[in-house]
Amino acid sequence: MSDAREKLEAVNSRLMGLFKAEKQTMMAFNSLTVAATRPGKISAALKELTAVAIAVAKGCEDCIIYHASTAKKHGATREELIEMLAVSVEMSGGPGAVYAAKALEAFDQLT
Predict the structure, then answer these.
(1) How many CB atoms are located within 10 Å of the residue 13 CB?
(2) What stretch of H or E contains 55?
(3) How many of the other CB atoms lie within 10 Å of CB of 19?
(4) What is the pLDDT of residues 58-109, one digit of tens each?
(5) Quick one: pLDDT band at residue 2, thresholds 50, 70, 90?
(6) What's the Cα-to-Cα distance from 100 to each of 14, 30, 63, rounded to whole Å?
(7) Gap between the terminal Cα atoms of the chain
(8) pLDDT digit string, tens, across residues 37-66
(9) Short-list 99, 35, 6, CA closest to 84
(10) Buried residues in 26-51 as b, exposed as e (16+ CB within 10 A)
(11) Cβ 75 vs Cβ 81: under 8 Å
(12) For residue 76, what are the contacts with CB-CB under 8 A and spacing of at least 6?
């Protein structure tokens, strides 16, 4: 990833464009996001690390950047991310390893 901060800004810009174009759907999606990541028995940081792991397994670079950033905001550590990435690689093999490396790089760039 060339520069995770620039890519994060681009992701957010694209999402805002979609929000402006289709407010009703994106407001519903935002409500889903807020509900899914609310504090509970599992911390918001762990929920976001899980989202990173799923994004790695799915190969969604924009999702990786977005959720790595949000995980950091919720206090996730680099070590926690690395442990979660190991599980993602286990579950998704070689492609997961490639995207896990991208996730770690993005997390480090977002410091």
Answers:
(1) 10
(2) helix 44-58
(3) 14
(4) 999 999 999 999 999 999 999 999 999 999 999 999 999 999 999 999 999 9
(5) low
(6) 23, 26, 12
(7) 14
(8) 988 999 999 999 999 999 999 999 999 999
(9) 99
(10) eeeeeeeeeeebeeeeeebbebbbbb
(11) no
(12) 45, 46, 48, 49
CA distance 74 to 34: 13
Q: If you search the block for the tokens 């991208």, which residue do you land on? A: 102
With CA atoms as reference, report the closest residue to 8 among 73, 53, 54, 58: 73
Structure tokens at 24: 């009703």
For the record, the structure tokens of 30 come out as 């935002």
For residue 13, the number of C-alpha atoms closer than 13 Å in the C-beta half-sphere is 6
Question: Six-digit token pair at 10?
Answer: 């681009």
